[in-house]
Design brief:
With about 300 residues, this protein is α+β, with helices and mostly antiparallel strands. It has 2 domains: about 150 residues, no CATH class; about 80 residues, no CATH class. The protein is about 40% helix and about 30% strand. Strands 1-2-6-5-4-10-7 form a 7-stranded mixed β-barrel. Strands 8-9 form a two-stranded antiparallel sheet. A hairpin with an 8-residue loop joins β4 and β5. α6 packs antiparallel against α7, α6 packs antiparallel against α9 and α8 packs antiparallel against α9. The radius of gyration is 28 Å and the shape is elongated. The two termini are about 40 Å apart. Bound molecules: zinc ion. The site of zinc ion has 6 residues, from loops.
Amino acid sequence: MEIRKAAEAAGSGAPTAVQLEAINALAKARLNGEQVYVFSVRLCDDQMDRDHERFDPRALGKLAKLFIGKTGILDHKWSAGNQVARIFETQVVQEEGISYIKAWAYIRRGGANEEIIADIEAGIKKEVSVGCAMGRSVCSVCGSEYGTCGHVKGEVYDGQVCCAILQEPVDAYEFSFVAVPAQREAGVLKGLGSGQRTLKELAEEFGAQAEYRALFKEAELGRRYQKELEDSVVRLGLTLELGVTEPVLRNLAKRAAAEDLLALKEALEARVNEMLPVCTQLGGRVGKQEMLESGFLV
Ligand SMILES: [Zn+2]
């Protein structure tokens, strides 16, 4: 999935000798210290953002490397829409319990770029938006692939706000200066381009959230019913002393389709009935009640 986040740039000035070396490793023509202006950009961090997403701190190192050599462009609102800056160095910084990627970028001095440099110095071009592609997002509550478990980011479960943890960096794209802070919201673009879209994203885009939620609830109910069936089959298998261990029974039950499990459960119940009449009447009743409660009795 493609991710775009807000970031911040801070002015710096002339490059150090080491920085100049790194810049020249990327530049087409050799540059001297007077020809470039250096500034830093705070890219992604591991804190939950307003989209209830955060980068996995373990992913930041690889992502930081992917940003080296990437260019900075101006927002379309600005007249010169060409590439103006380039990242030549990145590092993962840990500060007050927060990990973030700090990038160093340079701009060639002269011409229209002087105006941009002046804006960075004045703190006007502080807002930056960065893009990258991440391979996975995981639910912070249960660790499942986000979108497969029923937890919704931004909602609270047992006092914990659910968020999507972004993992497995695939690529880093250019960063762009955002003209006005109000653009921040607009700069947060997701799911564009080659990234795979989730059903949830599509539902959001086409205003079908209510239907999506309803389906999700039903699916959750279905999973619960399946789990109950599994438990019943395992319990019955053990009661009948089939000579198969619990893990084996559980494994088989997990892989079986709901109809097959239901048939097996009924057959095992009938068998238990023959052997232990008192016990099973109870078992049978509980079973039916389970089905009624789950709403899946067709
Ligand atoms: Zn979850």
